[in-house]
Structures are given as C-alpha cells and as structure tokens.
Design a protein that fits this description.
The chain is of the alpha/beta class. It contains 11 helices and 13 strands. The chain has a domain of 202 residues: Rossmann fold (3-Layer(aba) Sandwich), CATH 3.40.50.720. The strands form 4 sheets. A 7-stranded parallel sheet has the order 3-2-1-4-5-6-11, with helices on both faces. Strand 5, helix 6 and strand 6 form a beta-alpha-beta unit. The chain is globular and about 55 Å long. The structure holds nicotinamide-adenine-dinucleotide (NAD). The site of nicotinamide-adenine-dinucleotide has 29 residues, from helix 1, strand 2, helix 5 and strand 5. One of its GO terms (molecular function) is UDP-glucose 4-epimerase activity. Keywords: Isomerase. This is UDP-glucose 4-epimerase.
C-alpha cells in the first residue's frame, strides 16, 4: 500500500484518480481548495463517496501554501498533481491567476517535495503547450508555441518539473492530456454543454465556424495512463485519443446519440483557442506500453448515459 497525495482531487480528473487509487487499496490524501471557477458543490459531490473510506483524507487548502504542503508531504510516496486553474478562456481574461496557480503553485509543490521522501510526481500537463500547429499529429518533439496564458503556465510547470529532477533528483513525469471528457467532466467543456443542450432540445452554440478539430480523450484512458506512469517513465508524454474530429462533427454526433432536435448556431471565435489538436501516442506506447482504448462514439454514448442518470 502506498500513501498518495492527489492535488485538485475534488475536480474532474483528480476524483477519478482517487477512485482508482482507493480501489487498489492505497491511502489517499486529497488536497483541494474548492475554487469557485465552477460550482464547488459539484466538487463536493465528486468526492462524496470517498468520505466514509478510512483510507481517504480530505485536506481543504491551497497548493500555494508551502507550509501546509510540507506538513502533508512528510509521509507521502507519490503525488498526482491535478490542481490547476483550468480553462484556456479564463486565462485570457485573468492571466495572473493561471500563472499563480499553475506555474507558481507547481513550483511551490516541487519545493515542498524536495525535502520529503516523495518518490515521484505525476504532473497533469496539457496539449495546450503545443499551440501553433507546425504539423500533425503532435509528437513530443513538436515546437511549443502556446496560444494562451494557460498554455504558457502549463509549459512552465513542465519545465519546473524537469529542472527539479535535473538539479535536485526529484523524479517526475508530465502527462500532456488532450481534451478530456467523461462522467463528472467540468461543466465548462464543450461535450458537457452540448449534451445538456441536446437533451433539452435547446440550441447548441459553437464558437467560430466549428471547423476547429480536437482530439477528445476518454477519462478511463487518462486514469489508466496515470496509474501506469506512477511507476514508469520520466519527462513528457502525450496522453491523447489519437483521433480528432471537428466541433461541427462533435455537435452532430451528440445530437444523433441523444435523438435531439437541437439546432446549431454560431458565434464569434474565442481568443487563445488552438485551431487543431491531435496526439501521437507512439512515445507512450513504445516506451511504456500505454495507448488509448475508447473511441469517440463509444465514449460519447457512455457519457450521455451517465449524464441522463445523474440529472
Ligand atoms: N479536462 C481537460 O480536458 C484537461 C486537459 C488537459 C489538461 N488538464 C489538466 O488536468 C488537471 C485536472 O483538470 P480538471 O479538468 O480535472 O479540472 P478541475 O477544475 O475539475 O480540477 C482542478 C481542481 O483543482 C482545484 N484547485 C484549483 N486551484 C487550486 C489551488 N490553488 N489549490 C488547491 N486546489 C486547487 C479545483 O478546486 C479543482 O477541484 C489540470 O491540471 C488541468 O490543467 C485537463
């Protein structure tokens, strides 16, 4: 049994990681400040089922609090670092917050972990670190030209992880997630918004002309990767579905799956959003033996079923 800290553990991805870690018999500490970026009651619900588990401990606090981190990390073996100010759009309106939480917060975590017995940090990074497309699919050698403060802050966090390994021997791996979806997903993400609208036969609004493409990755594949990379791999790895569709195609799939009468309308594009994302997962497959399993149609069906059940 390992003792594991999950930062941002009450959020979408963090709560799934905790679920799996507890099922595997680990002791888990969840550190989350229940930030109000989206309704904190959703986050409380995400971790509701763990509260009775004797191997689960909730610490309400901030990753920018070095004193608190030091006191938690004392007996921790591994850290899954999911806490972040997520969202490209919010970073365009409030770049200081993304920097503060994602870059400074990660630096703070690394500093606190330096003097502890932590064996490895599994850092949640993002496809946003690529930004401007030079070629597709993105492999890990693709140039990094983030298009948003969010992308910059996630890239800085990756570099801090690398430098702390090189300078102080603190092991880490950064997993570059490509647009993640599935049960408990953030309410600000397209699949969640489109599904809600489709089920209510309401208009689906697309930013721009809908021809941007995204590599959507199902949550189960992300969780599988996290567990494998806990013991294997260092540096950066793409964790993506390896297949992209346009936002127009996404909306049509969601309308069809839900037998919806929704119509699609278009509004002005959002600053900071990448035109295309598509992962090459060859490095993760060749070196570590991870590859995605869930195809988009199957994932969207599973998500809709979950959504209907929950609402
Ligand atoms: N969801 C995606 O599509 C996606 C894609 C790429 C990368 N990521 C990364 O994955 C990680 C998890 O994302 P998510 O979608 O689960 O987001 P989320 O917002 O659901 O989860 C993040 C959690 O961190 C907490 N948090 C925020 N600031 C904090 C702070 N200062 N101290 C402590 N806790 C804090 C929030 O309250 C929240 O519960 C993030 O690092 C994000 O950048 C997500």
């Amino acid at each position: 049994m390992e003792k594991i800290l999950v930062t941002g553990g009450a959020g979408f991805i963090g709560s799934h990681i905790i679920d799996r870690l507890l099922k595997l018999g680990n002791e888990v500490i969840c550190l989350d400040n229940f930030d109000s970026y989206y309704d904190p009651s959703i986050k409380r619900k995400n971790i509701h089922f763990f509260m009775e588990n004797k191997n689960f401990e909730l610490v309400e606090g901030d990753i920018r609090d070095e004193h608190l981190l030091k006191s938690i990390l004392d007996e921790v073996d591994y850290v899954f670092h999911e806490a972040a100010q997520a969202g490209v759009r919010t970073s365009v309106t409030d770049p200081m917050k993304s920097h503060d939480v994602n870059a400074t917060g990660t630096l703070n975590l690394l500093k606190a972990a330096m003097d502890s017995n932590v064996k490895k940090i599994i850092n949640a990074s993002s496809s946003s670190v690529y930004g401007k497309v030079k070629y597709l699919p993105f492999d890990e050698e693709h140039p990094n030209q983030p298009l948003s403060p969010y992308g910059v802050s996630k890239l800085l966090a990756e570099h801090y992880c690398r430098v702390f390994d090189e300078l102080y021997g603190l092991k880490s791996v950064s997993l570059r997630y490509f647009t993640v979806y599935g049960p408990r997903m953030r309410p600000d993400l397209a699949i969640s918004i489109f599904t809600r609208s489709a089920l209510n036969n309401e208009t689906i609004t697309i930013f721009g002309n809908g021809e941007k493409t995204r590599d959507f990755t199902y949550i189960d594949d992300i969780i599988e990767a996290n567990l494998i990379f806990m013991k294997k791999g260092e540096g950066v790895y793409n964790i993506g579905g390896g297949h992209s569709i346009s936002i127009n195609e996404l909306a049509q799939k969601i309308i069809k799956i839900n037998n919806s009468k929704s119509e699609v309308v278009y509004t002005s594009p959002v600053k900071g959003d990448a035109d295309h994302t598509l992962a090459s997962y060859q490095k993760a497959w060749n070196e570590i033996g991870w590859k995605p399993k869930i195809k988009i149609d199957e994932g969207l069906e599973m998500y809709s079923k979950w959504f209907i059940n929950e609402n």
